[in-house]
Structures are given as structure tokens and as C-alpha cells.
Amino acid sequence: MNKLVDSADAAIADVKDGATVMVGGFGLCGNPENLIRALHRKGVKDLTIISNNCGTTDLGLGVLLKARQVRKMISSYVGENKEFERQYLSGELEVELVPQGTLAERIRAGGAGIGGFYTATGVGTQVAEGKETRTLSGREYLLELPLKADFALVRAWKADTWGNLVYRKTTRNFQPMMAAAARVTVAEAEQVVPAGELDPDQVHTPGIYVKRIVKGEQYERWIERRTVRPRPA
């Protein structure tokens, strides 16, 4: 039951070229920094990444993009990464843009075993192209299909050695649904405590979803866009 591994490199050692990988985070908030660095060091290529966004040009998942390790992005917001823009416009990167709520629900559906769901979001836009539609109670809806992955890389604030995870505040974002929607979920945690020390009522991701735990270190806690107001006179 002890799922703790020695290093981030060991935790992602079985990620192969061409894998589909979900990566937690919202902007740079809650990124699994150690696991992203390990993927970069490993040099795997042709990855399909499912994540809300692709970091910035130089931080987060942007590091993998600059190294040409990503073949396709399934994302919601990509406006902070100039390299993303360049690769997409030049045809080097395949992109599937998904409305943010739909992205979260597609991932959740993948983990819950739901075969698809109808949503009004995207009706009448390019998002609807090629998708089945249905009129329900006089309103048109799109059929959206679930998302699943070979691996999910998530970041927790605290974990126990059984793999139970607790997230902190907004770092929770997409991580719980991703942890449930992948064949192998790898979590890095800022704190790792012995099994049984977490209050069960505080656990956000039960350990049954988690295959491996690694103790995170050297967090930079990047800020995507620092905005401050003038100091009062």
C-alpha cells in the first residue's frame, strides 16, 4: 500500500512517446512542477497533453512545448504562450480548443464512466462542427464525449503514503477529476505523511485513484501575470 517513490524521474519512468497525459493546473497555479521537469528530462515526444492551458512561453508546460515534446494540446485557454501561438499558426502543433466548463466535465465524465453528455455551450460556433446535436425542452445541445488519458500528473498540498490527496485552495482546480480519468495517476505532494494521518473528511482524491506519490521539492510557485496597484502615498 505504500505508494511513495524515490523521485519524480522514477514516478514517470513508464511514460512513453505518444502517450496521452493529463496535467493539473490553472495557468501556473497548482502545476506539478517536479513531474513536468522530469518529463522534460526524460525527453519523451509526440505527447498529447490535456490541460487547461500550456503554461507560459518559458514556464510550466511551456518548457515541454519549446522542447518539441508535445504533438497535440487539448486545452481551454492558451493566451499566455507565444511559442504555442507560433507552433499552432505554423502547423507544427495540433490544437483542440474546448470551453473551460466543457473541458472539466469531459474529464469528469471520463473518470465517472459516462459515455457522453449534452451541453448548450458552443452551439452555433466552431466548437459544434461535426458534433451530434439534439433539441431538449426547446433548446439545442451538443453531444460532448469523455476524455481519458494514459497518465494524469497532479499536484497535492498533502498526501499520505496510501495516495490519499488534499489540495489547497485554488490549486485544486482540475486535479480531482484528472486523477480519476487516467489509467495511471501520479501525484506529487508538498507534504507526505504516514498512512492514517489525514482526516478522511478532508480528502479530495481517494488513494484508490492514485498509483504513485512523490515528495515535491524546490517549488518556484510561478506567477503567470503579476498585477499590482500603486502603493498609497
From TrEMBL:
- NCBIfam families associated with the record: pcaI_scoA_fam
Keywords, in A-Z order = Transferase
Q: What SUPFAM superfamilies does this protein map onto? A: NagB/RpiA/CoA transferase-like
| Family that this chain belongs to | Belongs to the 3-oxoacid CoA-transferase subunit A family.
Name of the encoding gene: scoA
Recorded superkingdom: Bacteria
Q: Which protein is depicted? A: Succinyl-CoA:3-ketoacid coenzyme A transferase subunit A
Gene Ontology molecular function terms on file: transferase activity
Task: Determine if Transferase is one of this entry's keywords.
Answer: yes
